[in-house]
Task: structure prediction
Amino acid sequence: MICKECGAYNPDHATYCKVCAASLRDDAAPKSVEEEPQPTKRFSRPSWMAAEQSEPVKQVAKEAVESVEEVAEPEEPIAEPVEPKEAPVQAEEETPVPIWSPSRSRMRPEPNDIDEEEEEEEEKTQESEEETESIYNDEEALEEDDDAFEYEPTPPKRKQNKKKNNTLFTVLLIAIIVVIVGILVLGGYMLLKNQLNCGKTPDRTPDAGQTTSQTGEQSNTPVEPSATEAPALNAKTAQLQEIDDGGNDVIAITVVIPANSTVTIYFPNQPDYTFTNSEAKDLTRKVKIPAEVFYPNTPLDDPTVVFQPDITITGADGSSYKVDCPTFTRTFPKLEITVTEPVPEGDEPIMAPENNVISLSGVISDPTAEVSINGVVTVVYVGGKFMYDYKFADTATEDTVDTITITATKNNCVGDTKEVKVHAYKFIPQAMKLDVRSEGSALRADKSGKLTVTGTTLPGATLTATSDNETNVYCGSVAVDAEGNFSFQISTEDSFYGISVITLNADGTEIGAENGSTKFTVTKGFKDKDTFVKYYTGKHNYLEIPKKIELNTLLANQAQYASNEYGFRITASVVEVITIDGDTIVKMSMNKTNETVYVHNLSDKWTPGENVGAKYNVYGNFIGTYSDTGCCEFYGWFAKKP
Result:
């Protein structure tokens, strides 16, 4: 709060001015002009002023407080302005800045920018402020300690200016260091560049092989760089350097040209480079030539090619000699042909359709390559695709096999060749499918002597079934549906017992398939053992093994004995019972000869698995050889213990 009398700064809670003791409240009644003497504007004393000067101030403040308490408040207080006396320049400030405040504390520099003296002053200032705040809490504080009213002027901000000067000096010093470093780097770069360019052609002279026409386009024709004098080198040995000139593959050749001599660099597909030294001293000349000028521009057999520039020096008298020049190597791409349709299957020829025309297509790895098929250039489309129709000659037969040769070539590339074997059209019928559904090794007729045979074949095939005993076993017609399922019925005479072999034939001519055939056995059981013996005894073909016939005889004459014309009795013991697809097969050992036989059990009453090792007389028919064992195989109708 600012005193209206002397203009001094006071705390917000103060009632009287700590300098002139004037009332700071609007409700305090001012003294009349006549009674109250005009206050003299005073300023706070610095801390270094004499202590005895504070006593008059205390007395004045005390009297002012007492006078204020005795004066009554007028109805309309009149505040007349008081003309202050002349004061120092510092008094002209409207709002003096306090020594410390929270706002100043927040605005102070970072701790890194404050030296030890500032920290000590700040601590003293904080202690002084705390004392000041404790003094001016109420009006009673004015009477206790008049020294608390003394105002400390704001110290000059010398250190802030010092910081600014330090910052400016630091920035200036850094700038000077950067400039010095830049000058050193630039000088080193220029020195290095001069060393590298020593003996080189000036940049203003176009490099050989990069002449520029009026239109701005570059050509591969070598251009003479300006001749530069250099120390004498070996006149018969050139120097070669491979350069990446802005993405261009360049070969730089340095050669010494004797006085009054001409150097010639030969190129395979472009005019040669020549330069004549008409001076009376040797010159060293460096020529930059695009590497592609040395390429052969023909199809290659090997992707890796070694090049050695051909250089000749010709003297004024017409004599010449070769200059030994180092070599450089380049690796060129290899083309690749891929046949996409039809895809060859190993080494087997590709079969032509009925019109004997094969539509061939493929892809070449480089679309810019030239593709020829059997010597005829074909069109290469986007992506490297090519197509070709190969037609067999009219004289070709179904056994004719031809070879189609596909060749891809391109300059400065390794070519590729593919050979595709093709076969003229030949009718190859589809393999016939013919499966009979059955459980076990034989189909059994029911008590009425009938059964239905089912299976699968190719749709459209024609099937016929026949029996080896046509007088007693009859086969009906075979029906085939659209999915290839077939079925037919077999009937037998009442007098027929035993086995009958059925042959099923399939004709696939109409569907372009092979003909097929299969055989299966149909059985009809005997009533009992005596019926079996009587049936074959009447034919004089009932044989006991080994009493009447041996097993070796059966194996040697299978076509005769493996039929329904003969019935056999074997005496053997059970060794093992085997079950395959619902068919029970009994492995037995002949008692006298220890020979092994296999018997298909067709009896519902014989349970050989429960009597392994038991001896039986088995009555049945001979079938042939069992699997790969070479043993005799039988159908067993009855089994009785001897």
